[in-house]
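User: Here's a chain of 142 residues. Predict its fold as tokens.
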Amino acid sequence: MRKDNRKFCASISVRNGEERAKLELSPAPLHGGPEGFYRVRLARRWLDAEDGAPRFFDRDGIARLAAELALCGLETPAPAPDIPCNSRVSVRRADGFYEGTWTNTEPILDYTGRWVVNVSLGGKRVFVPVEEVTVHKERRRG
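Assistant: Prediction complete.
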């Protein structure tokens, strides 16, 4: 009977949207691999090479694998728009008219992946998408 090599020294849980993946790490020497490397099991299945041989990962390889699982399908965000803090801008309101105001922040990438900027509207500070902001030639106070 074959020896059970399912001894894990660590696990990593990765979530991308609603999907979760669990990486289980087992020391490579238990599987005939080099010291300092690990064999990885993803979703209860060993990650093997294309020819079916055991595949071993070092720490950097495990980090790249976890990052790829976490970020797959996510696009690199567009560069930040050039709207400095304290810029004079107009913001399009819901009724279609524009209101003049000043920015309180530089553009910030929100959790949905779009650029927003904080402005003062109606006595409040609110975040609005940069697409709804028009920057005036007189860009800064002072």
